[in-house]
Specification:
Elements: H1 2-9, H2 21-39, H3 43-68, H4 78-88
Helix pairs in contact: 1-3, 2-4, 3-4
Length: 89
């Protein structure tokens, strides 16, 4: 369960990118956005997936802050992914 929380909060480990991890997370968000538009192209499904990313981020970030030993570590990029998806909405 710990590994899953870190995997999700770090944007499928894109947050470990050595330079600009937030930008790497946003790039993951762009890929997710295009996949969602290609696969579903339905507004209600898109809103639901945005909500799932938001809830997942809320649930995993507090654990990952303890895991990394500090507040708002740069490895956590699920907020960039969720922010991009909401912006594109």
């Amino acid at each position: 369960m710990k590994n899953l929380a870190v995997f999700l909060a770090t944007g499928f480990y894109s947050g470990y990118f050595p330079i600009f991890p937030g930008t790497a997370g946003t790039l993951v968000g762009i890929v997710i956005y295009f996949l969602l538009m290609k696969l579903f192209n339905n507004l209600y499904i898109y809103i639901g997936i945005c909500f799932l990313f938001f809830i997942t981020g809320y649930m995993t970030v507090s654990y990952c802050e303890d895991f990394f030993g500090r507040k708002d570590p740069s490895q956590i990029v699920i907020d960039e992914i969720t922010g991009y998806l909401i912006t594109m909405f």
